[in-house]
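Protein 1 of 2
SEQ + STRUCT:
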Amino acid sequence: MAFKDFISGIHNATKRNYIQRVVEHDKAECATVSKRFDKDYFDGDRKYGYGGYKYDGRWVAFAEKLIAHYGLKPGDKVLDIGCGKGFLVHDFRKVLPGLEAYGIDVSTYAIENAMPEAKPFVQVGDAVKLDFPDKEFDLVIAINTIHNLRIYDLYKALREIERVGKKNKFIVMDSYRNEQEKVNLMYWQITCECFFTPQEWEFIFEQTGYTGDYDCVCFS
């Protein structure tokens, strides 16, 4: 298990006004709508989520990093848990032809509206109970996904990730290192059920037997 900084370039590319997020709208109402993970979350008003989740190629460099770091090759299998509309699944296959990348997402809306190139390779699924055999994938990833689970389901999901991965796993979760980042995270997030310090995340990994790598998104 090791910390790997693969996500900061994407995360830091977005500017955020934390105070505006909580004073312009009813944050509780926004969170309630967002947690349905339907059209409002993906393609509705920005206050509910992405404000329009469209492919822009930002995940290509991320896919390249993971392919290089984990030494993936044609014929290897990758699972993206929380794949949304399949953008990263598409980019894995684009960057390395022959790589078998697949995705699951709890959102029926996201899967039904997946980008055409990725649609054959994504399906509705739940991180808590992965419908795949043991050791099926050469790399299992979950990017900004498992922190949307309550703690009892979070534990199940980490054990499932460990079960279906042969060796390599990489997950990204929201986190905080000080009180300012904690407040910023609470102001900004609309779907999180679990957010912890990096040290607390490592404790949870030990409790669940998760042996893969991880990265933390912190809201500075």
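Protein 2 of 2
SEQ + STRUCT:
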Amino acid sequence: MSIPADKRWRFAAFYFSYYAALGAYTPYIGRWVDSEGFSGYVVGAMLALWYGSRVISPPLWAWAITRSNRPGYVLVAGCVIALLAFAGFTVTHTVLSLIVVMAIFGLFFNAVMPQFEAMTLTALGRNANDYGRIRLWGSIGFLLVAGSYGALLDRLGDSSFPWLSLPLLAATVWAASLHRNDPAPERIPDSADAGHLWRRPGVRRFLIVALLMQMSFGPFYVFYTLNLQAHGHSGLAVGSLWAIGVLAEIALFWVAPQLIARFGAPRLLSLSLAVTITRWLLVALFADSFVVMALAQTSHALGFAMFHACNMRLMSEYFPGRRAASGQSLLYGFSSGIGGVLGAVFAALAWNRGGGASAFIFAASITLLASVIYARRRPASLVHSTLS
């Protein structure tokens, strides 16, 4: 089973819209909160709450989806509520109101993507290697917005951020509506339900590495834009650097199937970790240089795109059929959720203690720990999988 070519655009449309909205949110929410006069601790707390919602909402959402014969309507509902919640940022002026709006928005916006990833992998079936070429449309959406919104905010003012983001969230509602009648995945045989596959030693180790990798991205997602501004880079330069990273990501997603087939995921993941250590050290030590920052951003191809493609490959093997939503919620909640919370908290502490240099040295140290843990893995043979 696979997605017919004439229907792949519907999946691409949702990835494009969702990550376009994320392209406004991730690079510029910190800039907006900072412009409202709040401290780095508030920025860190908001992003920690954002990631914390990834621990709670995906499992609850997965529970609802596995009991629904119309998962597409659940997807649409989540996008609608996320849009309405985000509109609250247009009237928030206190720390408490920011936290409340962030909590509601995060709970629903973070719930829908694991569900959609599961829907995509289920539709792809045995052709899960084709995932990257559908997912890259999300990177294109992120690129267009992240690369342009810095200059746009320079022109219109930081206070325009919520209003500029709302149309993008409305687009996710439209894209979700294209999937409202998608069928629920078929139930898999009972033999495939036996045991908790995620408890295998290889899977546990991989989840820990994924958690640490997400932690290392804490300073990047929370303070990268502010760090570049502190070193004198304009909004146009900041947007350009985000765009360089996403362009590299798009190129990697396109060739990911061939690379995984040729070199194997274990080698590529080890390389990804090593390159990411170097990347964070460059950001910590040479943030004044646009050229060095541009070079560092090209490594986003391996540090994010390849790592993510390998994640999806592994999860499609361990959690087929109706297990897909639960599997995605596990990965999303454990790595992106817990890892994101810890990354945001420690990034805020490091930022307020020693600025960008301290925050990104912390990121490099965490990635080094992940690399050591992954290097000590015991190779395991997985059915149809190159990833141990």
